[in-house]
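Protein of interest.
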Amino acid sequence: MSATAASLSSARIDSHKLTAAAVMAEPVPAVPMTRFRAPRVRRDVLSRPGLLQRLDRSIQHNPVTLLCAPGGSGKTTLLAQWMAGHDAQLMPLWITIDSEDNDINRLFAALLQALQPLGLSWEVEPRSLLANLTGSRAQMRAALATLVNALCTSTARRIVLILDDLHRIEKPAAFELLDSLIERLPDHVAVVLGSRIEPPLSLARWRAYGELDVFAPADLQFSAEEAMALAAARFGETLDEDSVREALERTHGWVAGLTLLLRSRATRVAADAPAHADGAESNRHLFAYLAQEVLEELPACLQDFVLRSSILIELQPRLCEALTQRSDSREVLEGLYRRNLFLTAIDELTPVLRFHDMFREFLEAELQRRDPALKRELHERVAQAETIDSRAIYHLLAAQRWDEAMERINRAAEERIAHGGIATVERWIDAIPEEIRAAHPQISYWRGTCAAVEGLTAQSQHPMRVRALFHLIDALNSSGARKAAREYVAQASRLPLDLLGKAELSLQQAWCATPAGDLDSVALYMRDFVATVGADPENLCPATADRIHCVLIGIPGVVDSFERFFNAYQQVRGSTALPWHVSALTVGAWAHLWRGRRAELQTALAQAELLEYQCGGVNLVIERLGQLQALAQLVLGQHGEALATMHARIEGMQASTLAGHGAVWLRPYRHALARAHWIMGNTEGFREVLPHLTAAAMPGEWPFVATASATVRGLNAMFDKDWMAAEAALREASQTYSRCRMPMIYADPRINLAYALLMQGRKADAWTSFAPVYDEVIGERAIGLLLLESRTVVHALLDLVPANLSKLAAHSSLLEDWRQWDDRPISTPGAASAVPGKPGRLTELSEREHEVLTEVAAGASNKHIARKLSLSLHTVKRHIANILDKLDCDSRGQAADRFRRVA
């Protein structure tokens, strides 16, 4: 950012120029003075020190800071809090923008008025500047130069110009004025912008030059800890923790919505009103706020677009066009996303968006209120365009198109029931009026099939029916129907069971205890399982091998059970290869990985892959082996193969036949992909998948979603070396990690929290965070916790181990195991990035850029690279441009030559 008049200092102001006293004898007219005062901060407003520190740090070091989030997110409050406690050496100036500032003369007058407290020296009296402005660009440039020159005469160390409610401006000319001003400001002037919409300023350039910090909606969302503090400050002990967490989950931490919900619930509790009254009352206040502050702020054409699109599960251009009859749906969706309109991006390129549940509920209620007939028509319209059976059925049922709905149900029911979606099929059928479905035998058959499966527990004497019951429990829990799964487990536990039944029951008890957060019981149930198997391994190993869920690895105590089962398998496997051996080998390979036995892992994995190829496997076995393959390749340093395996698994999980299963497990697969990019230090790849990981939870997803989301937000901040932001997110994740723990799927927040603290110079705090992990690794011989992490991070943390522990044999054994995987010396890397590097200047390349350069050096064309790496041509070109920039090369040939010399 330039400083046009930086050479002008107060010592060089000519004597004929006006003094501040002379200029400001009278205020600039026609601008209300209340616009230049920050709002008063209420006494009960929650202080957010971490956020305030980040804001202050940005203001101190960045020319531009942007707070961009929906109304009610706390932007103005945060800025007012900063104003109330800012550094005494700073000179903050406040302007509240209103719609009249679309007139550039009035906007310029407001800027002049805001500068009054500075006591500047002016070349031209401000009133004359205003009087001579006619809106021409030449005059405006001259006026801006005069304003900038006056700012150069200030003796303040740093001037901070805060423009709040910038979304009130719509005219391009007004933004052109601001853009020109910001580009020309002296170095000691910072600008802070508060807006609900991303303003059309030179944000991309400022971001590229490292001159911009953006506070997005996710940054302003309340954490669980802040929500509890808010509830306590406003309502005392009226609300319990569960009520606060439910409100937080529903509002995604949106401050205004959270406050309204908490107030409504506190009022209900205080009045001893029935629980159902809370929903109606809280909806009334929430919806009123959204109608007034959000929907009415949109242009009429956009109001119609969002109301019609509210019936969609995901907002895709093709479906939005079917609903709205507009050919510009892609552009409209991109504009809505820039408006921060309570949307999550599922795919930013297409784009595919999803309304937050709360906002979607409001829009659907508003659409129903305005035109119920139109709502049914829209459901019918989108059902004809929808290609996924489950979504088409939903829309057909909402449109009351019973015949078409039953036709789609017939096509989807068998596959859905086979994958545990019994409750879904029942819900579809029960939504159809009984007198209509009674006339359709096929629908009656499917309803009867569901009822028959549900009635299996009534015939407990039959071993096959008992086994089918456990299949049902497994499928229900895997598909997100956790409550129903637990109810069936309770029923099964009361049945007379043989040894196989007891082994199955222990497995399903462990499986259902996992999402419930009862991890001690998970280990206990797994010990019961292997004890039962030990009574008859020859029969029970084959019957249960494919029922063991490998995602349990990493829960304390489970690896011992995996090892014991694998030992039992080795005793009874015989000389003939059988399909169930693939599952047993997968369990054993996981145990080897977690214990850090490199050679044994590779042997078991190779045997499992060969057997799977020879015997062919069912989908579930292939899926579990694929999970192991991907993470084993990752820790073995086979990064390209790991990424390919992960992408294949993600693509497979998105098949329409796995819709129910994928809704729960697609995000974990993407977490594994993010883990790979994190370990490889690939910022770009990590951030490509990040929106999928921080999106609002889908119905049925497991509770670890929120913990994992906070974890990856922390890792994202670590890529930027924003250690304080990383600490805040990782502390949030660590609070629930003991209950929502799945280290095979996403990173351990305790490890990365320790590193973030270490990078702040807080070694004692870093060891406090890392010590429980270290104790677990030593006590459980669970080096896998460290293998699934960045090598740089682990090296730094192992160097923190106190002298009294580092002298013990257990520590020496740990280091010996660790060197099997990484033989670099363990030493603290100081402020080094947690990003593994490559030789020479290639250290600046991301993993994906390194893959692209490898292909370029081999002579591949852009089209060939795009096909091989599953990228678009546009993305390949972007990668090559980045490579040339980072390597300071003028051509592909130069970059390839440099790569070949280093490689």
